[in-house]
Amino acid sequence: MKKYLGKKISTAIFISGRGSNLKNLIKFSKSKISPIQINFIFSNKKNSPGFMYARNNGFKTLCLPNRNFMSIEKKLLQILNKKKIKLICLAGFMKILSSNFIKKFRGKIINIHPSLLPKYKGLNTHIRVLRNREKYSGCTVHFVNSKLDSGKIILQKKVKIRKNDTAKKLSKRILFEEHRMYPKAIIKISS
Ligand code: GRF
Fold it and tell me: How far is CA 77 from CA 22, 89, 100, 102, in A?
């Protein structure tokens, strides 16, 4: 892949949990091919491993748990504007952003979801996929709009379901593909 020569896009990552996609995007952002620079990381969960990792690695972070999300969004908008954030990557972020917030960042918020959207929006995707005896599942990076997991698809990767799959095994194989796909999707929308 080609070295990125343009001005790096000031990017924020929003997380709620483990943070494996966050770590992967941090690693990617430090590579020569990356169009993004991570300038801000937000979590709504204080003790989440992802947030602790971000804090311990010198990133500008903010965590506002257990508060009215409207007031959180207000504070967030101030910081995002101050940091001139041009792209928001949701990576396991478990809150639903308001349509007002999304409007302010129209076309600039993307999300990764562990299914082949539009199938299996929402939670517990792997369990539902296995219960329905699907042949394939996968992952999707998409733009965020005001409907859950419904914005325009940027990239998608299929993963074959195996005979003795469990939700745990399947989620591990899909996560591997998520880590390959998220950076590719960012390159795609930035070129
Ligand atoms: C990933 O499977 C992602 O697709 C979904 O939430 C999970 C987050 O995992 N939206 P992690 O926190 O990035 O490890």
Answer: 20, 15, 11, 11
Percent of the chain with pLDDT over 70: 100
Ligand 1 atom, smallest distance to 18 CA: 12
Whether the Cβ atoms of residue 160 and residue 173 lie closer than 8 Å to each other: no
Smallest CA-to-CA distance from 115 within 148, 75, 73, 79 is with: 148
Look up the pTM and report it: 0.97
Distance CA 92, CA 17 (A): 6
Domains of the chain: 1-105 (3.40.50.170), 114-140+157-191 (no CATH)
State the virtual CA torsion across 115, 119, 125, 127 in degrees, nearest 10: -120
Q: Ligand 1 centroid to 172 CA: how many Å?
A: 11
In tens, the pLDDT along 147-163 reads 999 999 999 999 999 99
The best mutation among 14, 16, 20, 137 to test binding of ligand 1, ranked by most ligand atoms within 8 Å of the C-beta, falls on 20
* pLDDT for residue 19: 98
Active site residue 179: no
> Residue 76: which H helix or E strand, with range?
helix 69-82
